Amino acid sequence: MQTMSEPIIEVENLKKNYGPVEAVRGISFAIGEGEVFGLLGPNGAGKTSTVEVLEGLRTADGGRVRVCGLEPQAAGEAYKQQIGGVLQSTALPEKLKVSEAMELFARFYPRPRPTAELLRRFQLEEKRDAFYAQLSGGQKQRLALAMALVHDPRVLFLDEPTAGLDAQVRREIYGLIEELRRERKTILLTTHYIEEAERLCDRVAIIDHGKVIALGAPRELKQRAQGQSRIEVRLAQPELEGTLLGLDGVSECKKVDGTYVLRSSRPPQTIVALVKFLDLHGNELQSLEMSSSSLEDVFIELTGRRLRD
Amino acid sequence: MKNTWTLTKMRMRLALRTRIFLFFSLIMPLAFLFLYAVVFARSEPRAVAYMMPAVLALTVMGSFWGLSMQLVSFREQGILRRFRLAPVGPGAMLASGVLSNYFLTLPTLALEFLIAWWFFGVKDWGNVAGALVLVSLGAMAFATLGLIVASVANTMQETQAICNAVWFPLLFFSGATLPLPLLPGWLQNLALFLPSTYLVTGLQRMIVEDAPVFSVGGDLLALGGCLVTCFLMATQTFRWEAEQKIVGRAKLRAAAAIIPFLLIGGWENAYGHRLTEANATFQELRARAAPQPEKAGSTVQPQAASGADGDSAPAIRYLPPSSFPQLPPELRLELETRGCSIPQTFADPKPHNVVSGAFTAKDSRDWAVLCSRGGVSSILVWNEESLNVMELAPGRDADSVQGVGGDRMEYSRLISAADRATILKHAADYGGPAPPPLGHQAIDDAFLEKASVVHYFHRGMWLRLQGAD
User: How many CB pairs below 8 Å do chains A and B form together?
Assistant: First the structure.
């Protein structure tokens, strides 16, 4: 439960163009203090552009943006002291040591946290004298996170924090973010990983082609997919969607990228019926995947496309 | 301020960890020093001293390579982007680059001085403090030039291309490699538009001629102006993001940083004496080193006197009129037109043999200059009001030379103002003709530690009165 008296982040009808390309076409949302908010969407949906406008790195071409009551671009240094961010790709000088990087950024702020403590928390203590170039991807990301927190910001922006990292490292990062969540830090996180959004966020805005197509707590959104299981099948020969719809328990059938996505309230019965059907028609089942409903379902339902690329 | 200092320290630390930096900032300049000193100057201390300005200039000029490449590299890699998220402004980023570069250059400069002093035996350093001021200003000015290059370039390749294009003229047309006097006249005029020219000629005047700092005011102004203009322009056009490409009109705006150079170059060409002086110093050096036949078409200054009997001339130190900033401009012009250089005695390292006083009438404002041309010196007396010049007491420079300790032969003719009391005392002590009523000063024309004669202007004539004996 949250009491959102005055939202700490307000985005109203945000627009951002890159030349003729409209990357953000009217996005609106509001985030309360202490909330972990996710922007979920495929690559190119406009998530990073939105976050960069909020961080003050880009100018909006339309709409209104307020963070901590300030306008990101105009407020200058006062604004930057309130926010922390992990960019989509962080780059630091190769020969800079980990401890030096922390110290350097700590010095930019009036009241920084002790860097040794942060390094310990993010398990970088052993690497404190290592050069930036010697760190693994996961270590670099942990460092980026530590650097973002060195001044105890009111708002934290995380742009695709686990992109390109292996599953193990990803889980480490999730653990760290969950810790921050327990500390009631306000976090805006962008991602194209459904698991991330479902697991970490209090509320999620699903973004596609520069617009918000759904907004709410993950649980609420998933209920829209009618709490049904999803069965994805690939067939040797194409069938009509209408035909598959007639199978036992199937409430919906959509063909997405050559895969048939069926919604079923009785998955085992559907599968049996499917196998019988295919056998009868001389068709073959190439692959079958079953999952309980997820935000991806919501996405597919709203857009007819997959979230993953 | 604090951010600038934090960043400066970080950049210095990073630079010291990069091997290629150590090569360019330490090994290369020292290699140049040895090349110049051994090959061009043939290890002769005075010639090495003449080469030092070029070596020092080369050491600091490279700054613009380093700064431009590093800034563009940081931008392209996305490093600047991360800094942008922090409360750090462009001013701190740029200033830290200039400062860190400067501090890192100092050890190399110190080493160069040390090597020249200890290894090559250069003892006569002229105005070292002034040279340090000038070279510091130069280092920072060239650093800011690098910042401008970084502000107009989009990629590393572009930066390299621009640096190469700018480096060549800076290097070859400014006297940093080939001495300026060896270039054809029109190229010398072109050189006046380059900041490196001001650095090299300014340093030459400090080191070779021991000029006081304010006499190179023009150089300090040129370099200081470069520093300020380039820095401000660089802050205005600073880009954090690699994607913010700079095009067309914006590039032109950044290139507006060269306008001061166009102005200074134009002014110097029209009104300046820089080229004359550079040529003079050069001639002087060659005269000192060994007597050589006068080059056809060489500009202003005469050589040391070579006796008609084929004696090799002693090395006499001459100064051009510009070494005397106290001279009224009309007199300076007069002296330069006549092709005067002022011989210096061994007794005083500071410029002398130019005196002012009342030599022609009571309360008149006159100047007496010992003017040497073609190995013959005479006293020129010039009046500030009438602008008249009188010439007296010609004598061969070679005749004014005496042995002082061992085999050294040193020039010994010294002129100074003599007042009434001195004249009367000489007359009393040494006899000689009775002086007329003395209404104004006279000129004491001395052969150091030997004898002197006193020239007194009386009723339109110069009388020779008794001096010391």
Answer: 55
